[in-house]
């Protein structure tokens, strides 16, 4: 497993691990796959996935295995390319009557061999373009001849004039009154251009035709196709209804060009339009497997025939998954009367033992010489062809007993699943399929009350979660199709028995009940417990969700929408989010978070609409990432920020796509994103929310001082050299007589502290000059020395004001109003301590803090721990401002953390205010200024957001 993770599929392996699918199967027999559990015991898994359709008769079918052994024992040549290959010929011969019968064509079929499904599709594509190319070559010659004849006629004196239709005049204005040479040159160029156009292929919505560079462009699922869209092949995806409309001429969604040919008629020279084959082929899977198990009908087949005729191109039936007996006949298409020109087979045709694909092309449509152009080292190998022939014999022996069994079993299973649908119409949306290719589509859980279930759906992973549950709890293997995350695909072997159908139904019944009841704990139990609990009953949590009051319906859109990126404080908070996890231990919650770390996207919570007292409304939406404070701080310490940054950027992009204009980087995400500057997402205004956090904390601090009955005299600012600390120092300087700026002592810290000290003096000086006697704080401390300082400033004019004052104070005052220190002991001199240091752990020694001091600790994580504070009830500690919303709007109770009704954190409120203001750009982004703090505080007040209760406990 580790080697697979390390050397082969790192991302997929992580995904498999996250949902308990990381099993290593060492043995396969019949309908069972076997793995060793953590105690070394062999566990059998009922395989209802059948090798994604490749195993119909059962794993390692004894008779076919015997045939393989015989072939090996007979020293059958494996690699004898460029010779007359009897296995390939024999298999093709065996296919002839079967294909003729099932397609209804009398023609022979030419067979081209490959090793995989996608390769086979690509060969079909290549062949169809060769056919189109021949037609284009003929048209090119026809064009040249027509032009030559016109030139000759005009050369011989015929009048040079072309009568054009109205449409032609419009489309080709150059032709109007053009000279002979110009006419000919124009038509020649135009035709050459039309003939040069690349082919277009038509595939159906939900199509899956492979993942190679060409076939991937025929696969509808955008996730697989989009990254490779520049590679070329042009595909139009359409529904059957759109194809029908195209045939009827009601919709012209595909441009069909025409060649222009000058032609002499009785009424003179005209320009004939000759259709050019633009579409090289139409592809269809009679039962779409990977797209979500969609079954084509007889009338769909008729539409496909009509579109083929209209476009003059071949119809390719991709029966890679649906064919070779999987749906109860060699071709699933034969059950709906489909008459394809090419048939593509693979998967089960390899008898579950070898890798083989075949493209069978009607001989009337075959491009001579294609077989010389196409070859592959492994194609036509004797072993695969012989095994496929033996497999076909099995399918059709005893008048097709095996195929009849597939049909009967399919009916039985389909009936049972429909019964389940009947019992759970609220959970199951549809049951579809044919033969032993069936699908269960679940209703979207994107609005599920249980947020973890909702998140699974949001990530397109619901089907995978259920797959993990079924495997680990019941030992049943199924999987969603490649492009349909809320569908479970069931592709059993023909060995399936009634008791096993009952087993499946029992397990699915529990799953449906748990989804109905929103019992996340039941569904996810397997992720955190070693032992399965197959007999436990799901519990009903619907009433818990209904008491949360989550069904708010905002029928009118808000004036704007803002996002806020947050994360878990710690994993045990999951119990708050989901009542079904109430009895989970901290370790189990941790394990769940760890499992889900693979995909950090958490579904956004429903918006909270906040209305300004001035009227504007803002929808406030949480876009969480799945990570805890501790996980993030570990990554911060280890400087492994890229995955987190990527996850946060993804949230920002999602918020933007959902129409959010502003996003707040909450909790640790602002640090991870370097105060917003590391974000890559454009087109959304960012803020850390720091400005209003400072403003509110500052207001709370002043209130606390008032309650204490003693104003702040000496404030120590820990981390004063930092972004937040420096602004805080400037604010504190407006109220305190003395300021001690404390820095870390790290390199450059003292220099940065001095810079802050200079700024503080300069601001105080400006206040003193403008406000005279009313200036408070450091300004009032400087007032007695105003004249002396002014004289010094005059004498040193040209030198920076702040620096000059600093020097003067150092020289003349025993106790300068602003001091810098790298000694934490300086805290003992302060009656007010402001903590704004960026440290991963609380580091302040509570013993150094004065009696009855006020501590304002807005650092994330905190500089002073809650446990230390418990020893000192005399200290009033403020953890940051909490904002009262204008009309008591509240966060979802599951994510309120330490907030009460009607409250949000100041950083959230800043994001809301920016939305209300439609602020045009980033706000608290990079370095902060005191002016920003003041501006946002003012705007918040105007919108009715005021300081709420003071947050006094630790929250991160
Ligand atoms: N076409 C269809 C209809 C398929 O289902 C698949 C595989 N699921 C392919 C093509 C591609 O086959 P392969 O994975 O062997 O390349």
Automatic annotation (TrEMBL):
Keyword Transferase listed? The answer is yes
Pfam families recorded: Aminotran_3
Superkingdom of origin organism: Bacteria
Give the Gene Ontology MF terms in alphabetical order. transaminase activity
Q: Which UniProt keywords apply?
A: Aminotransferase, Pyridoxal phosphate, Transferase
Needed co-factor(s): pyridoxal 5'-phosphate
Q: Which InterPro entries match?
A: Aminotrans_3, Class-III_PLP-dep_AT, PyrdxlP-dep_Trfase, PyrdxlP-dep_Trfase_major, PyrdxlP-dep_Trfase_small
What name appears for this protein in its UniProt entry? Aminotransferase class III-fold pyridoxal phosphate-dependent enzyme
Species of origin: Photobacterium rosenbergii
Lineage, highest ranks first: Bacteria, Pseudomonadati, Pseudomonadota, Gammaproteobacteria, Vibrionales
């Amino acid at each position: 497993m580790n080697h697979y993770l390390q050397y082969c599929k790192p991302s997929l392996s992580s995904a498999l691990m996250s949902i308990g699918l990381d099993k290593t199967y060492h043995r396969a027999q019949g309908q069972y796959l076997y793995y060793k559990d953590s105690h070394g015991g062999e566990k059998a898994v009922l395989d209802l996935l059948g090798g994604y359709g490749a195993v119909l008769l059962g794993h390692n079918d004894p008779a076919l295995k015997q045939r393989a052994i015989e072939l090996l024992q007979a020293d059958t040549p494996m690699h004898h390319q460029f010779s007359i290959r009897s296995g390939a010929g024999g298999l093709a011969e065996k296919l002839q009557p079967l294909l003729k019968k099932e397609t209804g064509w009398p023609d022979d079929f030419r067979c081209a061999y490959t090793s995989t499904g996608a390769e086979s599709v690509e060969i079909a594509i290549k062949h169809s373009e060769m056919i189109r190319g021949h037609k284009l070559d003929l048209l090119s010659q026809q064009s040249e001849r027509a032009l030559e004849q016109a030139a000759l006629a005009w050369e011989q004196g015929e009048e040079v004039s072309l009568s054009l239709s109205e449409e032609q005049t419009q489309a080709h204005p150059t032709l109007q009154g053009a000279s002979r040479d110009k006419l000919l040159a124009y038509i020649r160029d135009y035709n050459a251009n039309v003939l040069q156009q690349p082919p277009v292929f038509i595939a159906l919505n939900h199509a899956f035709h492979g993942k190679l560079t060409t076939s991937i462009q025929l696969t509808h699922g955008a996730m697989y196709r989009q990254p490779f869209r520049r590679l070329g092949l042009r595909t139009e995806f359409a529904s059957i209804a759109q194809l029908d409309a195209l045939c009827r001429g009601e919709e012209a969604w595909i441009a069909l060009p025409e060649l222009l040919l000058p032609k002499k008629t009785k009424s003179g020279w005209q320009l004939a339009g000759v259709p050019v084959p633009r579409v090289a082929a139409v592809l269809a899977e009679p039962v779409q497997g990977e797209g979500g198990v969609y079954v084509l009908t007889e009338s769909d087949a008729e539409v496909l025939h009509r579109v083929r005729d209209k476009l003059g191109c071949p119809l390719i039936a991709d029966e890679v998954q649906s064919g070779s007996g999987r749906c109860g006949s060699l071709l699933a298409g034969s059950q709906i009367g489909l008459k394809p020109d090419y048939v593509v087979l693979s998967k089960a045709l390899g008898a579950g033992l070898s890798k083989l694909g075949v493209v069978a092309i009607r001989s009337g449509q075959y491009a001579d010489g294609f077989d010389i152009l196409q070859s592959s080292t492994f194609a036509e190998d004797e072993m695969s062809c012989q095994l496929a022939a033996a497999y076909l014999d099995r399918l059709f022996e005893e008048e097709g007993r095996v195929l009849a069994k597939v049909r009967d079993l399919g009916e039985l299973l389909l009936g049972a699943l429909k019964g389940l649908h009947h019992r759970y119409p609220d959970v199951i949306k549809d049951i579809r399929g044919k033969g032993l290719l069936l699908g269960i589509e679940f209703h979207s859980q994107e609005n599920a009350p249980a947020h973890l279930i909702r998140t699974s759906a949001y990530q397109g992973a619901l089907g995978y979660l259920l797959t993990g549950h079924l495997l680990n709890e019941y030992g049943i293997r199924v999987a969603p199709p490649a492009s349909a995350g809320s569908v479970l695909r069931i592709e059993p072997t023909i060995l399936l028995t009634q008791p096993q159908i009952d087993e499946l139904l029992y397990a699915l019944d529990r799953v449906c009940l748990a989804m109905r009841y929103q019992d996340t704990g039941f569904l996810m139990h397997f992720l955190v417990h070693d032992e399965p609990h197959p007999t436990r009953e799901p519990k009903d949590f619907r009433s818990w969700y209904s008491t949360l009051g989550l069904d708010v319906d905002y029928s009118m859109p808000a004036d704007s929408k803002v996002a806020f990126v947050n994360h878990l404080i710690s994993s045990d908070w999951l119990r708050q989010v989901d009542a079904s996890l109430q009895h989970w231990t901290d370790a189990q919650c941790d394990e769940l978070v760890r499992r889900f770390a693979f995909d950090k996207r958490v579904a956004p919570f429903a918006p909270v609409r906040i209305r300004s007292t001035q009227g504007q409304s803002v929808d406030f939406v949480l876009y969480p990432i799945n990570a805890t404070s501790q996980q993030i701080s570990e990554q911060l310490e280890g400087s492994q920020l890229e995955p987190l940054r990527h996850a946060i950027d993804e949230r920002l992009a999602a918020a933007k796509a959902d129409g959010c204009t502003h996003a707040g980087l909450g909790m640790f995400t602002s640090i991870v994103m370097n105060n917003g500057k590391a974000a890559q997402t454009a087109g959304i205004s960012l803020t850390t929310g720091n400005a209003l956090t400072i403003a509110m904390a500052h207001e709370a601090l002043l209130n606390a001082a008032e309650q204490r009955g003693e104003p702040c005299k000496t404030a120590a600012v820990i981390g004063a050299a930092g972004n937040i600390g420096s602004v805080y120092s400037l604010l504190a300087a407006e109220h305190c007589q003395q300021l001690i700026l404390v820095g870390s002592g790290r390199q450059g810290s003292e220099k940065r502290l001095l810079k802050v000290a200079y700024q503080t003096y300069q601001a105080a000086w400006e206040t003193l000059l403008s406000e005279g006697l009313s200036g408070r704080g450091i300004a009032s401390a400087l007032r007695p020395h105003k004249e002396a300082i002014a004289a010094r400033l005059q004498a040193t004019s040209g030198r920076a004001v702040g620096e000059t004052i600093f020097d003067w104070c150092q020289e003349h005052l025993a106790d300068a109003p602003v001091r810098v220190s790298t000694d934490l002991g300086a805290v003992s001199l302060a009656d007010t301590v402001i903590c704004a240091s960026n440290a991963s752990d609380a580091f302040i020694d509570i013993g150094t803090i004065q009696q009855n001091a006020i501590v304002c600790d807005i650092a994330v994580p905190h500089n002073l721990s809650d446990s230390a504070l418990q020893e000192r009830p005399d200290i009033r500690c403020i953890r940051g401002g909490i904002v009262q919303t204008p009309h008591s709007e509240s966060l979802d109770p599951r994510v309120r953390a330490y907030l009460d009704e009607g409250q949000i954190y100041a950083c959230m409120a800043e994001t809301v205010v920016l939305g209300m203001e439609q602020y045009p750009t980033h706000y608290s982004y990079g370095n902060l200024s005191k002016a920003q703090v003041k501006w946002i505080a003012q705007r918040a007040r105007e919108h009715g957001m005021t300081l709420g209760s003071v947050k006094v406990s630790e929250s991160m």
